[in-house]
């Protein structure tokens, strides 16, 4: 790797380090009350101690993170599967597209967490309500992207295959779905982010007794800002780990290897 590329790769980390140093200095100087904005070093110590069990302060963050990840996996999987299946069906059928478009346009702008009180009335508090909110959040992002991807496939591709005698199943499996895969993967990535946001909000308001969202909300009356920031730090770290270790790896093995995605230098 050239020196210029190394410098370019280091810029985000240098920027983050500068921001953390500025935050540390402002908090420790007394310019901002540390109770309201604890220094990042204290947040990291509290988080690390809670994770390894040395300093729980009433909140074993590792156990709460595991609970949130379990709910995220369940809701995200349900929403992604439903979104992909529904998006393919809507994208392939002109009649279904005309029928579903107004409904999707009405429902999708509503934030998923806004459905939390409704789901609590319909299916109860706690885990069922959280799973429903997370699944809807993921579905709303995935289905729109998949519909766009399927309908965006050039008709010429389909016509050429059909002119050679390709059957409907072949066209779907070998042409439409692969061509729509970039939009589908983008929708899944957006769905993951939406799932995280909705999960944390739902854990705050649906009567959950565990989870990172519960920790953030429950620590508020006690002004345990170190714990609150620590939970937020774990949310960001886990989201980055899933995105980079999971979805980014899939993107490298598919889109980039197939030549469907690349970085454009202007």
Q: What does it look like?
A:
With 266 residues, the protein is mainly alpha-helical. It has one domain (64-258): MetI-like (MetI-like fold, Orthogonal Bundle). It is built from 10 helices and no strands. Helix 2 packs across helix 10, helix 3 (61-92) packs antiparallel against helix 4 (94-107) and helix 9 runs antiparallel to helix 10. The two termini are 20 Å apart.
Beta-strand residue percentage:
under 5%
CATH architecture assignment: Orthogonal Bundle
Instruction: Supply the CATH superfamily name.
Output: MetI-like
Total DSSP E strands: 0
Give the mean pLDDT. Answer: 83
The value of Rg in angstroms is 22 Å
Largest sheet: none
Helical coverage, percent range: over 70%
Number of domains: 1
Q: What's the SSE blueprint?
A:
Elements: H1 3-29, H2 40-52, H3 61-92, H4 94-107, H5 116-123, H6 127-151, H7 155-163, H8 168-205, H9 212-219, H10 225-258
Helix pairs in contact: 2-10, 3-4, 3-6, 3-8, 3-9, 5-6, 6-8, 7-8, 8-9, 8-10, 9-10
């Amino acid at each position: 790797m050239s020196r210029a590329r190394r410098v370019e790769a280091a810029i985000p980390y240098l920027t983050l380090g500068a921001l953390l140093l500025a935050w540390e200095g402002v908090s420790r100087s007394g310019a901002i009350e540390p109770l309201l904005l604890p220094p990042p070093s204290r947040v990291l110590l509290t988080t690390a101690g809670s994770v390894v069990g040395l300093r729980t302060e009433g909140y074993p963050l590792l156990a709460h993170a595991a609970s949130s990840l379990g709910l995220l996996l369940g809701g995200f999987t349900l929403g992604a599967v439903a979104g992909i299946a529904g998006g393919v069906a809507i994208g392939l059928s002109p009649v279904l597209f005309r029928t579903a478009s107004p409904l999707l346009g009405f429902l999708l702008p509503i934030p998923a967490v806004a459905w939390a009180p409704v789901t609590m009335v319909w299916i109860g508090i706690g885990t069922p309500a959280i799973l429903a909110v997370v699944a809807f959040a993921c579905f709303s992002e995935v289905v729109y992207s998949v519909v766009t991807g399927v309908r965006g496939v050039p008709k010429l591709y389909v016509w050429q295959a059909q002119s050679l005698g390709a059957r409907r199943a072949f066209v779907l499996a070998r042409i439409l779905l692969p061509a729509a895969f970039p939009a589908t993967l983008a929708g899944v990535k957006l769905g993951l982010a939406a799932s995280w946001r909705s999960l944390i909000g739902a854990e705050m308001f649906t009567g959950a007794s565990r989870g990172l969202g519960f920790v953030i909300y429950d620590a508020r009356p006690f002004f345990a800002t170190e714990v609150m920031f620590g939970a937020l730090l774990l949310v960001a770290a886990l989201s980055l780990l899933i995105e980079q270790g999971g979805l980014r790896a899939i993107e490298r093995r598919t889109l980039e290897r197939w030549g469907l995605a690349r970085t454009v230098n202007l």
